[in-house]
Specification:
The protein is mainly alpha-helical. The chain has eleven helices and three strands; from the N terminus they run ααααααααααβββα. It has two domains: about 140 residues, Ribonuclease iii, N-terminal Endonuclease Domain, Chain A (Orthogonal Bundle); about 60 residues, Double Stranded RNA Binding Domain.
Length: about 220
């Protein structure tokens, strides 16, 4: 289905949406001076603002720290990938790389990027009210049903460390792979004792994985 018909967009600026779905490889291949990265940057800010406002109003008794943790669940990469697939945004992607030649991490990253770049285009073209209506229609239900996209194991292990008055730290065990597709292995230490090892496509992801292992050893659940 046509992108504009699908989302009820009436515009004289279709070119902006072409930019929103243009990957860097397509720009390079066709000698273009644009790709979706600037709109992705803008869409990230718009999404954070709209989600923040909704959570602020929905949970008037929540303190800043709790709201921050809650927001992270709905703006994390896993959530963006889910939104993007639910809206079939990858169907509109302009790219010059076969999916078989992309790493799993690159595919996931591009899928998440598309949601933010599309939202950035909506904001520029249709304004904030339309962007809010879009997010309200397609995202707020996930907040209301308390869907889990991301569990913050690092925060949980930090809270354990603070409560037990023990030091929690991380150290890099190994990193390997080409620059655009690295894998990191991190360990989490509690008072110097190694309690978990995890891997990820960046250090933060690997730390989360290591913290999860440590929490399982400590028999601490994260909700």
């Amino acid at each position: 289905m046509n992108l504009f018909d699908r989302f009820g967009i009436f515009t004289d600026n279709e070119y902006l949406y072409h930019i929103a779905f243009t990957h860097g490889s397509y720009s390079t291949k066709h000698d273009l001076d644009y790709n979706y990265e600037r709109l992705e940057f803008l869409g990230d800010a718009v999404l954070n603002l709209i989600i923040s406002e909704y959570l602020y109003k929905k949970y008037p008794d929540y303190e800043e720290g709790k709201l921050t943790k809650l927001r992270a669940n709905y703006v994390c990469q896993n959530a963006l990938i889910y939104y993007s697939h639910e809206l079939n945004l990858p169907d509109y992607l302009n790219i010059e790389v076969e999916e078989s030649n992309l790493t799993k991490n690159e595919v996931l990253s591009i899928t998440a990027d598309l949601f933010e770049s599309f939202l950035g285009a909506l904001f520029i073209d249709q304004g904030m009210d339309f962007a809010k209506e879009f997010i309200a229609k397609y995202i707020f239900d996930y907040i209301d049903e308390e869907k889990i996209f991301f569990r913050d194991y690092k925060s949980a292990i930090k809270e354990y460390g603070d409560a037990e008055e023990v030091e929690v730290s991380y150290e890099l065990v190994e990193e390997f792979g080409v620059p655009h597709d690295k894998t990191f292995i991190m360990s989490v230490l509690i008072d110097g004792e190694k309690m978990g090892i995890g891997r990820g496509k960046n250090k933060k992801e690997a730390e989360q994985a290591a913290a999860k292992v440590a929490l399982e050893k400590l028999k601490i659940s994260v909700f």
